[in-house]
Amino acid sequence: MDRLAPEQLRSHRWYGTDTVRSFSHRARTRQLGLSAEDHLGKPVVAIINTWNELNPCHIHLRDRAEDVKRGVWQAGGCPVELPVISLSESFQKPTTMLYRNLLAMETEEMLRSHPVDAAVLMGGCDKTTPALIMGASSMDIPAIYVPCGPMMPGNLRGEVLGSGTDVWRYWADRRAGLVPDGVMRDLEEGIARSPGHCMTMGTASTMTSAAEVLGMTLPGAAAIPAVTSAHVRMAAACGRRIVEMTWEDLRPSKILTAEAFHDAVTAVLALGGSTNAVIHLIAMARRLGVDLTLDHFDAASRRVPVLADLRPSGTYLMEDFYLAGGLPALLTRITDLLHLDRVTVTGRPFGDGIADAQVYDDKVIRRRDDPLSEEGGLAVLRGNLAPSGAVIKHVAAEPRLLRHTGPAVVFDGHRDLRRRINDENLPITPDSVLVLRGAGPRGGPGMPEQGMLPIPDRLLKAGVRDMVRVSDARMSGTSYGACVLHVAPESHVGGPLALVQDGDLITLDVEARLLTLEVPEEELTRRRAAWTPPRTVFRRGYGALFDTHIQQADQGCDFDFLTGTGGAPEPDTE
């Protein structure tokens, strides 16, 4: 493989010429305490760190950045840490999805505007993985991803708990009057016991696993628990590897091919992964000019079994998955469905990274002849209620609801839902279809995780734990239930969801992939003529930019001006 010469490094344009600007760059670098021997003629590696003190998933990344730096120095590079915004799913409102594209833009521009040759991307909490990879892909300099890793398993009086998933379960039981306050206090202290992202197969684990299958991490990196010494060693190894990637000029555009994205879709389905992966992978692919659509997910779902027995669809947690062999072990069971010859950040074929992997626990990573589900965990629905598509994680729903017709009970936004869901006079039965609109990309705003609509208290007390729910929102990857999500186009832009009225019959048929509003077309035409667009939520700032340029869920919710390759020039350093 041809290797770059030192004068071909991108940083050489800042440091290596005989101009007053180059002199000034070198002088200011001396001001940082770095000597010429530290950086001249060496790859300058940006460590893009999403650490902050209100992101518990990433609270250890300040230390992990030092481990990455150690690896960069060892390999003969010069590391520089560049902090970027941190998207904390735990705290940021209305949703970090509102800011995914902002982090992607910041990542791209931080890399473009500074004298760096390569990037180590540090993240893990839900939206950080797609955002960082989207930004680095658009910039297209060598990049490697360091996933922050899952937290330790939760524990409540001896019961093993999964973050998110068991919160929803216990909270529903509390609303039903089955759980005393003392238990809830212990749950509060035991559900999240260490740094790291959710240890269920929620959005965080799904997206870091997708990053690994895409070839953007070292093999096996995604499942390593955050607090283990193996995670420290992985971070240092990434620091060493990125220096070699720089000399090899191994860029995201050489790694993130159509085959890589199709393999990521396959892996997400085999993992029983989060519905949010649909939006993120489509957005990531479109940054590389790869045509990935909802139809690719649905076609793969029909041939890919669910082999990871992980919550919320299954039983186990990410540490169990790691000890059972992790993602490389699972991939050995579906090699016939993968493209093994494509290159990864290792510089070697994807297949090499899983060649020596073994499954150590068939209960956690199922055999092909004993799957958790014979079909992938996601289904794409279409029909007159979702002409551009909707998704459902049907393996996490009660089977009786996968073919269901019931009358709609409609809520206009989350405030309306909270206000009326427990109204004793609201005509809701277990057969009702709960409908939430005004929660999509523009209406939410930002498409918040409101799609797991709460079941009314009186039905919970009667033993009801699942109902069909339909919305243009997303839901947490740790959630479960017969929740139809991402209905597109959203109601805010006049999608058919805006036309539903209380009592309308809605039919869900997962096997037939249908979502149908049982209302005559002439009546829908009449309602459409009477519909008026809701007011714009934002009047200024980033929110106004978001409202103007955000695309719909089936297109990945990227900004329309960010999709595709090229178009952003390198800065003039003279």
TrEMBL record:
Any one Gene Ontology molecular-function term assigned to this protein's record: metal ion binding
UniProt keywords, alphabetically: 2Fe-2S, Amino-acid biosynthesis, Branched-chain amino acid biosynthesis, Iron, Iron-sulfur, Lyase, Metal-binding
- Superkingdom, natural source: Bacteria
Against InterPro entries, the record matches this protein to:
Dihydro-acid_dehy_C (IPR042096), DiOHA_6PGluconate_deHydtase_CS (IPR020558), ILV_EDD_C (IPR056740), ILV_EDD_N (IPR000581), IlvD/EDD_N (IPR037237), Sugar_Degrad_Dehydratases (IPR052352)
Q: Where is the Dihydroxy-acid/6-phosphogluconate dehydratase N-terminal domain?
A: 42-351
Q: Which GO terms describe its biological process?
A: branched-chain amino acid biosynthetic process
Dihydroxy-acid/6-phosphogluconate dehydratase C-terminal domain location is 363-557
Q: What is its EC number?
A: 4.2.1.9
Q: Which family does it belong to?
A: Belongs to the IlvD/Edd family.
What protein name does the entry list? Dihydroxy-acid dehydratase
Q: According to the entry, what is the taxonomic lineage of the organism?
A: Bacteria, Bacillati, Actinomycetota, Actinomycetes, Streptosporangiales
